[in-house]
Known about the structure:
Strand content: 25-35%
Distance between the termini: 48 Å
Radius of gyration: 22 Å
Strand order of the largest sheet: 4-5-6-9-8-7
Helix content: 25-40%
Amino acid sequence: MSTLDIAIDRSSPVPLYHQVASAFEKAIREGDLPPETKLENEIALAKRYNLSRPTMRQAMDHLVREGLVVRQRGVGTQVVGPQVRRNLKLSSLYNDLQAEGSTPQTTVLGLDVVTSDDFLQEKLGLKSAAEVYHVRRLRSVDGRPLALMENWVPLAVAELSIEELERDGLYNILRRSGVDFRMAHQTVGAMVADKDQSSLLDMDPGSALVVMSRTALDGSGSPIEYGHHVYRADRYSFDITLVS
């Protein structure tokens, strides 16, 4: 169990629960309380900081809403760290992670050449059965699993290798091959993790996953790549800006 020294100002107009939550949030975001750190239960924390249990629960509820900690039956309250927040734009997860200062790692689970079925022919704009790459990857951030990614790319688009896919992002590789990404059709949804997904993503079976499917197109409007990705919902979310 990890503890945190907090200076609480009882004369401040800032609510006590918010002072505590802000101190924990700062410690989590700065790495003083790293992911997987187990916290004391609310009764012990309330006693430690000389607060009421409802006040301490408010503070923990705030951290749960921010996606910084999770409550798990039989485990208690555990730090999960800041979520990866991704804008809905035509970019790759690899580049988004680098842009926010994270260190993405890729494990290639499979790189095969398969014959496209009717579904892939529709998604990739193929007039008949054709050979395409089927890429399966595990993407981790700072050594912690985040996403399972499957992508299908026509052989005529680029030459792919396991070595290059583990060194760099798929979109970077395709751009170096001359692909000019311009737009994409994307769907975002949710599902629960099956046995294989939970094992690879280091989570319990039945845990929530964010699901994203995307067909990327080049400047001529031709489909270049189709992807189906699943992300740990406790570590990943999309940011959407709406205007009227």
